[in-house]
C-alpha cells in the first residue's frame, strides 16, 4: 500500500513537471547540462521518472491488499513475469499517450512538434521500467534468502532424526 501511494504521489508530481516544462516558452526552458543528448536526454530522463513511479503506482504484488476468500497456497518466490506484466503494459500505454498528447498540443504553446521526442519518451519509459524491475528483483531476492523477515509463520526446519 505504501509503495502504491508513493508511486501515485510522485507520478502526479512528475506529470505536473512534464506538462510545465513541455508548455513553457522555449526561451524560458532551463538548460540542464548534466543530462546528455540535450533535448532528447531531457525527454528520456523525464519519462524514465514517469515510468518508474507510474509502474509503482499500478503495481499489485501478490499477497498484498485484501485477502481473497479462496485460500491459495502462499508463495515465497515472486516471478516478475507473472505479476508485473499488467503494470508494464499500463505504464507503456499511459506514458506513450502522455507523450503523444504533449507533442500534439505543443504548437498551441509556441513550441515545435518533434516526433523523435515521442521516441525518446518511449525509450525513457522502458528505462524507468527496467530500473524499477531491477530494484524489485534485488529486494525480492534478498527477502527470498531471509524469509524470517517477512513471513510470520516461518519456522526453521529442524532435523528430527537426530
Word description of this protein:
This protein is mostly helical and 162 residues long. It has one domain (2-60, 78-145). It contains 5 helices and no strands. The chain has helices at residues 2-23, 38-58, 80-83, 85-105, 115-144. The termini are far apart.
Defining traits:
162 residues; mainly alpha; 5 helices; 60% helix; elongated
Provide the gyration radius in Å: 21 Å
Number of strands: 0
- Overall outline: elongated
% residues in beta strands: under 5%
Provide a count of the helices. 5
State the share of residues found in helices, binned by percent: 55-70%
Element order, helices and strands? Answer: HHHHH
Major sheet summary line: none
The rounded distance between the terminal residues' Cα atoms is: 44 Å
The tally of structural domains comes to 1
Structural class call reads mainly alpha
Low-pLDDT ranges: none
Task: Tell me, rounded to a whole number, the average pLDDT.
Answer: 80
Question: What is the topological layout?
Answer:
Layout (H helix, E strand, L loop, with lengths): L1 H22 L14 H21 L21 H4 L1 H21 L9 H30 L18
Helix pairs in contact: 1-2, 2-4, 2-5, 4-5
Amino acid at each position: 500500500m505504501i509503495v502504491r501511494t508513493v508511486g501515485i504521489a510522485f507520478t502526479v508530481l512528475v506529470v505536473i513537471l512534464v506538462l510545465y516544462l513541455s508548455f513553457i516558452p522555449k526561451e524560458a526552458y532551463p538548460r540542464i547540462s548534466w543530462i546528455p543528448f540535450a533535448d532528447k536526454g531531457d525527454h528520456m530522463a523525464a519519462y524514465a521518472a514517469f515510468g518508474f513511479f507510474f509502474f509503482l503506482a499500478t503495481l499489485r504484488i501478490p499477497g498484498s491488499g485484501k485477502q481473497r476468500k479462496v485460500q491459495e497456497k502462499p508463495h515465497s518466490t515472486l516471478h516478475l513475469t507473472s505479476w508485473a506484466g499488467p503494470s508494464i503494459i499500463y505504464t507503456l500505454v499511459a506514458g506513450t499517450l502522455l507523450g503523444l498528447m504533449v507533442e500534439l498540443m505543443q504548437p498551441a504553446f509556441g513550441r515545435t512538434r518533434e516526433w523523435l521526442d515521442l521516441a525518446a519518451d518511449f525509450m525513457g519509459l522502458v528505462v524507468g521500467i527496467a530500473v524499477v524491475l531491477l530494484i524489485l528483483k534485488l529486494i525480492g531476492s534478498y527477502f527470498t534468502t531471509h524469509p524470517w523477515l517477512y513471513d510470520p509463520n516461518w519456522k526453521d526446519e529442524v532435523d528430527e532424526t537426530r
